[in-house]
Amino acid sequence: MRHDHLITSKQLTRDAIERVLDRAAEIDADPDAVAGKHAGKLLGLLFFEPSTRTKMSFETAMKRLGGDVVDMGPIESSSVKKGETLADTVRVIEGYADALVVRHPKQGAATMASEFVDVPLLNAGDGAGHHPTQTLLDLYTIRQHAGLEDLSVGIMGDLKYGRTVHSLAYALSNFDVQQHFISPDSLTLPREVVYDLHQEGASVREHEQLEAVLDTLDVLYVTRIQRERFPDENEYQKVAGEYQIDLETLEDARADLTIMHPLPRVDEIDPAIDDTDHAAYFDQAHNGVPVRMALLDHFLGDPL
Amino acid sequence: MTADHDRNDEQTTGESADDHELRVSKIKNGTVIDHVRGGQALNVLAILGIDGGDREQVSVGINVPSDRLARKDIVKVEDRELSQDEVDVLSLIAPDATINIVRSYTVTSKHRVERPEQVEGVLTCPNATCITTEDEPVTSRFDVLDDGVRCAYCGTIVRESIADLIDSA
């Protein structure tokens, strides 16, 4: 990769993606080979929104490489509470760290922050915008379970606000993938994303019902429909209920269907599915570590 | 450039026209912005920061007949030659416009506007969740598309009512 920062999966070519995944696979197979490789390096964690998996897997990845983290902590106890701008915060913390990881509720926050710093900055989610490191671990998981050639991928749930969805869709447009987007009418993909996917020549179809495509899918990527997106509780219950899957739903699915979810889930995937061969979402979460180790290794001085 | 036969374009084409056909008077020195899409003249004034508060002399024709556009607007601003930045922004709402620089009643240069690749600091992103709407030291930046503009930060695309996004509007 030639970029100084990782802001969006739109900046990733197929070649760059495959190099990250290859490096992650090497690390996954022999993590001891890179243990201590970045001793003495510090990663700055700036999470302006709550995070469990992303933050902990970045921290784990950095420590497994021999480095350490400096964490801004919750915004309630930081200078952000005093009204400090994001631009000032990143300029201060770049003086403490060799690279920064930023999650922020506003779209474009990582792009703007990257304009103020010289150290590498990795976007860990900017509002409804992008989440490229999640995308790379998603692709790693898809490659592990289904390969990345001639695929049919269904992405279901909150497609409007789901940044993991937007990032994944952009990245999949680099591959020979038929993308099916399944959502209620009120939560379809933003028109900007559809515009970009068409510009990229991606094969894209939108559906309201999973049944329309389930039996054709190699991968089903489920996302959570958030209660707060609906002003009316009854409407939420009605809509959310249509996008939950259980063992009965899967009777029409292919035997080798891979089911993914960025987690946390609420009730979109029945726990009974966890014990089937379909379930890949815990592998997916674990893959955050080798993939983020590969990315940190790249950005901390060993370019891919 | 193809000769234009609009009846109100006599200053830019050199054609004479009967007085009763003139709707916008000639200017001595300044800029004539011609072939503005019908109904956009007031937005052109907004872009140029003209609100009648200064002593600038301005003539405006709205929805006058035009061979090229069927209906067009025309704006004549006395004693002011537009900067390239101003022309860039004008191109967003008046992509067919012609900029005529007039000196001593003579058109000394005439050119069509060209859409820039990007405009900075002139439009406000309509996406309330965009970082540029926060109190951050950031200048708005939009990529210019064939049929609209796109925020370089949040990716929001605007195709209609671009003039509503202009900071000075």
Break the fold down into its secondary structure elements and pairings.
The complex is a heterodimer of chains A (304) and B (169).
Chain A (H helix, E strand, L loop, with lengths): L13 H16 L12 E6 L5 H12 L3 E4 L14 H8 L5 E6 L4 H6 L6 E6 L5 H15 L4 E6 L6 H10 L4 E6 L8 H9 L3 E5 L11 E4 L10 H10 L15 E3 L20 H6 L1 H12 L5
Parallel strand pairs in A: 1-2, 1-3, 3-4, 5-6, 5-8, 6-7, 8-9
Chain B lengths: L9 H4 L16 E8 L3 H7 L10 E9 L3 E9 L5 H10 L4 E6 L2 E7 L5 E3 L20 E5 L2 E4 L5 E2 L11
Antiparallel strand pairs in B: 1-3, 1-4, 2-3, 4-5, 6-7, 7-8, 8-9
Protein described:
The complex is a heterodimer of chains A (304) and B (169). Chain A is an alpha/beta fold. Helices cover 34% and strands 15% of the residues of chain A. Chain A has ten helices and nine strands. Chain A is globular and about 55 Å long. The termini of chain A are close together. The mean pLDDT of chain A is 94. Chain B is mainly beta. Chain B folds into two domains: 10-112, Aspartate carbamoyltransferase regulatory subunit, N-terminal domain (Alpha-Beta Plaits), CATH 3.30.70; 118-165, SH3 type barrels. Chain B is built from three helices and nine strands, in the order αβαββαββββββ. Chain B has helices at 10-13, 41-47, 84-93, and strands spanning 30-37, 58-66, 70-78, 98-103, 106-112, 118-120, 141-145, 148-151, 157-158. Chain B is globular. The A-B interface holds A 85-87, 104-109, 111-112, 115, 126-129, 191-192, 195 and B 127, 129-138, 150-157.
